[in-house]
Amino acid sequence: MSVMNIREAINQTLHDAMERDPSVILLGEDVAGGAGTAGGQEAIGGIWGTSTGLIGKFGPDRVIDTPISESAIVGAAAGAALAGMRPVAELMFADFIGVCGDQLINQIAKFRYMFGGKARCPVVVRLIYGAGMNSAAQHSQAFYNLLTAIPGLKVAMPSTPADAKGLLNEALHGDDPVMFFEHKALYGKKGEVPEGDYRVPFGHVRMAREGGDVTIVAFGRMVSFAEKAADKLAEDGIGCDIIDPRTTSPLDEEAILDSVEQTGRLVVVDECPPRCGLAADVTALVAQKAFTSLDAPPECVTAPHTPVPFSPELERAYVPGPPAIEAAVRRTLDWG
Amino acid sequence: MQYSKDGLLRAYRRMATIRQFEERLHEEIAKGEIPGFTHLYAGQEAAAVGVCEHLDSDDMIVSTHRGHGHCIAKGCDVDGMMKEIYGSREGLCKGRGGSMHIADTSIGMLGANGIVGAGAPQAVGAAIAAKAAGKGKVAIAFSGDGACNQGTTFEAMNMAAVIKVPAIFVFENNHYSEHTGDAYAVGTALDIASRAEAFGMRAWRANGCDFYSTFEAMAELLDYVRSTNLPAAIELDTERFYGHFEGDPQRYRAKGEVARLREERDALKSFRASAVTKTYLSTDELDALDAAVGEEIDRAVEAARKAERPDPSHVLEDVYASY
To answer: What ipTM score was computed for the predicted complex, to two decimals?
Structure first.
């Protein structure tokens, strides 16, 4: 074990994968950062700091700074994967899936099925997502719900450094396209990370906390907010199960249902707006498969049905926070 | 340019296979035998074959919605294609792709594609892999005069030029993007190749209804790309003998246009004329090939009609490698 933050865990995992497997390449805007400038090809070292040191070790044929061309980035990753490589494509902001939607949803998601199971398309698309940096409506969205809805894609969103390494490493060993969501406000989060070839299988939750009174299912950055809320609730003797699904496709339905069958109460916390999101999805799952276990109506704590606002006061009002989670938990306990 | 007799016979057989495959589909679709939309390649045979006769299975192509010709030219199994188009379990893609999505990655055919312009970036990625393999292999994107107007095509050309990979952009200008004329939709004065030149690429222009013209231009182009690992482009002036899709009433055509094209711009006719006068092929040999291809297509249709249909349970297969 060593202690590092999520940024370092991702960087280390990319270094290890490129070292281990010559078919792994990284491409995206400013993944090296500085090509064609006086500062040299590694002036930036990756805009998020996750690709630092890679170009120096693996060279510009494997760490490819691209023009600002998201369709070509994801499309080239798709073609390279069909041709036998394991490309990692970085979308500097997840919001840019609006630019390259076709390559994600009509191309890489479909190849295996549409080509009769013979094509292999192990693309990892790293999408940097989420509100919290006052980046307004086009650079702050948590679009994992949209891609979770697409058969053929797997979707992961780690909330700890260990899971960042384990899930990314798993993605880099698999044969399916993986949408790997990295929350920009979580990059500095520290934790212990196992050494070596550590992998976390998809479709298995992390039980972040066991409390027994209420089940909280929280995604990505929302896990730490749920933990803060649970700390407050614990002062009143209320114990929360906090489930971090880690992957939304596949989703570990069993672990969620098991917990709700024990607690009878469900709160789902999702950074996406409410419609057609993961909160609605998990609530429907529980309503269909654990209806008789419920002692109160499920609660959804989500962003509102608005674009992400710019102003700090407005953005704070947009992002679901610990007080809203705490209030939702209390509503499930006070019901009836 | 020197041609071998075997090479010419093989090229003719491929072109004849495409023609008869498409003519036969045209008949069977009219009878209601084939589900979905089908886009026929007849008229463009010299383009696909003139390009792909230079390739082996380590070279890669990405194709379009009008992809049957590219598949046959690259060596896809004709029986498997026919079964796929009939929607059979025994099809090349188990009946899950159909006419617009035939692929066989094992021979470098990375897929026909229902989205116009989607393939060009994928060829850039395949070219990254080709360059990494270091064997002088190339990746080719077939695009039409419709796809040349998609942003993806521009992004792909620029990226290929920037990152210096052996991607080849083959623009087959059949003068119709769906039902709209190139005189209207192609803004660069009907010149698509100039777009590639604007990105700093070398570009060739050839007659895409003439095997020799396409083949010889591609020979030069491939010498250049294989030796430099740099991208290049070629525009092939070609013709579409059928509509955008089968069932298209083609009200956009001039009166007698198709009859004139079949008279003046038929790649098989021009190949025959040149082959018999300029080389050592005889009309009898070509006739014999036509007959052999006809039997092959008959057998393919018969086999497709009898082939196993998918079971409803198969709908769940192959979404993921593991889930």
So the answer is: 0.95
